[in-house]
Amino acid sequence: MTTDTVTATSSDAQTLSPTGLRHRLAQADAMTIVDVRSPAEFVTAHIAGSRNVPLDLFTEGAEELAAGLPGDLVLVCQSGRRAAQACERLHAAGLSAAVLDGGIAAFEAAGGEVVRRGNRWAMDRQVRMAAGSLVLVGALAGQLIHPRLGLMAGAIGAGLAYSALTDSCAMASALSRMPWNRVEADPSLKSLFTPVPTVLLDR
Question: What one-character DSSP code corresponds to residue 27?
Answer without folding.
Answer: T
